[in-house]
Design a protein that fits this description.
The chain has 108 residues and is an alpha/beta fold. The chain has a domain of 64 residues: Response regulator (Rossmann fold, 3-Layer(aba) Sandwich), CATH 3.40.50.2300. 31% of the residues lie in helices and 14% in strands. Strands 1-2-3-4 form a four-stranded mixed sheet, with helices on one face. Helix 2 links the parallel strand 1 and strand 2. The longest helix has 16 residues.
């Protein structure tokens, strides 16, 4: 994030989507060190919804894979495979966006 914020060639960064919540925490820290306000100047979103994401300041907007559902789906597919039942080639899990304080409205 520090490199992104310093190498924009005059362009303004308005949002960052991070690979996971821990990276998002670091992005928030670097944004604050650069004098930016999250989310007023920069929206930041994480991915995986770790428990502490709701307790940081600002609370982190994040995408949840709903791991309980993921585990149930994986167990169901494994059970069908071991029982020699037909299993589809594609199994999808619907993620859920938890909007909290680290993102603001798009003002583009």
């Amino acid at each position: 994030m520090a490199e992104l914020l310093t190498n924009m060639d005059g362009r303004k960064v308005t949002a960052a989507s991070c690979a996971n919540d821990l990276v998002a925490f670091g992005a928030i820290k670097e944004a604050l060190k650069a004098g930016l306000r999250v989310p007023d100047d920069l929206s930041i979103i994480g991915f995986d919804n770790v428990p502490v994401s709701a307790n940081c300041i600002p609370e982190l907007t994040t995408v949840s894979l709903k791991c309980n559902g993921l585990g149930r789906t994986a167990a169901d597919v494994l059970h069908k495979l071991t029982a020699h039942k037909k299993v589809g080639k594609l199994t999808s899990i619907e993620p859920e966006l938890g909007i909290r304080e680290s993102t603001g409205p798009f003002t583009g």
